[in-house]
Amino acid sequence: MKYKDTLNLGKTGFPMRGSLPKTEPERQAKWYAQDLYQKRLSQNQLKPHFNLHDGPPYANGNIHIGHALNKITKDIIVRYKNMAGFYAPYVPGWDTHGLPIEQQLTKLGHDRKSMPKHEWRNLAKDFALKQVDTQRADFKRLGVLGDWDNPYITLQPEFEAAQIRVFGTMVSKGYIFKGAKPVYWSWSSESALAEAEIEYHDIDSTSLFYANKVKEGHGLLDEDTYFVVWTTTPFTVTASRGITLGPDFEYSVVKPSGEDRKFVVATDLLETVAPKFGWESWETVATYKGQELDKITAYHPWDSEQEELVMNADHVTLDSGTGLVHTAPGFGEDDYNVGKKYGLPADVTVDAKGFMTANAGPDFEGKFYDDVVGTVINKLTDARLFLAKEKITHSYPFDWRTKKPIIWRAVPQWFASVEKFRSEILSELDKVAYFPEWGKVRLHNMIRDRGDWVISRQRVWGVPLPIFYAEDGTAILDEEVIGHVADLFAEHGSNYWFEHEAKDLLPEGYTNEHSPNGEFTKEEDIMDVWFDSGSSWNGVLNTRPQLDYPADMYLEGSDQYRGWFNSSLITSVAVNGIAPYKAILSQGFTLDGKGNKMSKSLGNTISPIEVANKLGVEILRLWTISVDTSQDMPVSNEILKQVSENYRKLRNTLRFLMANTADFDPTKDAIAYSDLSAHDQYFYALENEFVADIRKDYDNYRLNDIFKRVINFVNVDLSAFYLDIAKDVVYVEAPTSHARRSMQTVFYKTLTDLVRLLLPVLPHTAEEVWEYLPHETAEFAYLTDMPEVEDLGDTTALFDHWAVFMKLRDAVNKVLEEAREADLIGKNAEAALTMYLTAEQKNWLAELHADVRLLLMVSQLHVQDVQDVQDAENARDYDGWQLSVAHATGGVSPRDRMFHEDLGADPAFPELSKHEAEIIREFYPEAVTEGLE
Questions:
Q1: Are 249 and 320 contacting, i.e. CB atoms less than 8 angstroms apart?
Q2: Quick one: which H or E segment has residue 26?
Q3: CA 283, chain centre distance (Å)
Q4: Is the C-alpha dihedral spanning 106, 112, 113, 115 positive or negative?
Q5: What does residue 672 show for φ and ψ, rounded to 5 degrees?
Q6: Fewest Cβ atoms nearer than 10 Å: which of 102, 144, 534, 672?
Q7: In the sheet where 182-186 sits, what is the strand order?
């Protein structure tokens, strides 16, 4: 018989390598075949609800790494909540309307203007649903469990109807109005944009300094005086209707040397701008406050039919320019607001495609707005009004889809008033919990500073605005009529609007005093897609019986503070006076390994499906909690390889625990906590604290802390300590001995707790482990609950005692390392350690009740009085412990590799210690006759 046959060498069929790319899809198929999602919910039917409402991704193309981060995080939270005593359904959703799908149809060769709108929309619907199918398969490959057969999709009739009803309620409260305010206008999309559809980039622009001649100076300014105006958008000079000054700023009227004209410039900027104009010296003729110059008029630089009004407003600054701002009310929000105050028209000289219109003048008509800088300069120069130009670099808004710059442009649009109930929104916002906490300030500031929401879009693929017009052009905003349209959409879908005339969409017999002949027309614009997704609390939470409103959580990227978080909050407060969510969790953006933004053009993107098929989605899921998602986070193939190493360590640790509990039946072999060996009792309590900490991290959505805590627990507490000493117990001791069963009790608890704690993150691995645990009766690990924190009483003294031991262990490791360097010993097992203890240390050792020799992994341990250290040759102080090391005496047992002085105590086993021989005689009696080798 061989010595190794007398050792309890753990065995398990659980493979060292996971072969994740192959086994994960097989396991996922089993989940759906067995309806695991519904089984878990059915089990939780009577438990408190937790509802994480899915923000709908846009249905266009395969998923990217940001999608994976988002969906995996949601899955982790939902799985945890279901295992932590909640009924937590997950209904995934998709956003399916909007320009990107129309652009894709154009790329496929379809011409929107060559077919009826309803046919174009049918093409868009078919395309969107194919994208949903593609992304659904991708998300399921990530291991995300949910109601995938019944998702919500914003093109579904029932969703569209719910959205229309939100609009109707906002109409009834007077929040919807039509106006010609300047809006973000994308000439590349031919549509107005919402703030959430804007991104900013630095661009170089030509700024101009020019003069406006005074027309009526009100006795303050002569007709040979000129206002020095600055603009960064030269094309808007064609629609300039005013000059805005700061009411409290001082303005100087100066006459430069060699000039026959006088000029008005902000006094504080005079020294800065004068060199730009070639003014070497000047005479200050007079100074005035901006408010004194209010309502003076000036000539337009070249349009003889227009005059410009001097106005006062607080948006004027002295940061740059001249302190006099060229004002075109049709091309800017500040311009519009001051122009409205002073009764100026919001004239627009650019069409929907960005080309100058006839009212800009014959020199401009038909030219692209960004190509007229030279024309403007020539016109100003011809009139002796041009003073200077310069290039400036500044942040400028772009269409987030087409990546083209936008312009402000006043066109008739439908708006949702934010101002009318802003205080209610801000009040509700204060009741929400934020993860991270800075999200509150960010959302608060965005709502505080937000203007009215332009909700109309000049597109085809979307939910139509349910507005009719009477014969005299009066808009019909009637909640009853809108409710009728909602009913039609619920039955037929919103395409019904484009398939029928207005008379067929109105309630039967409908009349209106503004249409004496019974003639009506309908609105052709569609709603902003943010109104679609922003109504999901009504289209989903209020229509599905298993869901709740408000939701417990909305979780999306940090860009959604100006997107979905924002629009959902506005519509929900507008209709019901409450926020649609109790908590917001936001995440940063994924960057490449060098910290750069990911972009297809840069070639630095990572496909989550490729990662899943190469490394396994478990690696991607583990990466998700390995990063701090409250800020932007890096991901690269190299980073994922590092995460793979962490996974390998976790897997092998689980495998070790499984192998060494293979012969352990928790129903028969478990040892009560109070009867555990001292070191096992300590680790049991330590593991209990670990469970408590992980549960708190889950409850507070600190997923990155879970990763750090798990890795530390596995690498430090388990591998570097407990499992290190374990081999001398679980391998060597008698199979059914108290010492071994005591340690196996802790092993099994640690194993089953780890499996359940890790399941939300690594569900494939957890379920694989579960299949190798014959004493666990649940069909799936996911059908079990999170481990509970046990009440072990006051463990303060226990941890205090073991904290002292850990300091002793550190000191012993130092002395052993010195002995190794001196060639006194090789392995720790060759050491005989002597500890010279004080009375206090002896008391501590007695109270520890532990086999310290075993824990320090030396062959022999001697304890002497601290006074004896004076007679010891190589003893010295190590961090308060008096220690010395000698080479162990006796011989080495081939079975446990330790030195013993009683080898051969049993003549039948001359190479074994007495204790080992006793084990052999009891459990391996055949060795007595066969012998050992």
A1: no
A2: helix 20-33
A3: 60
A4: positive
A5: -65, 150
A6: 672
A7: 191-193, 182-186, 407-410
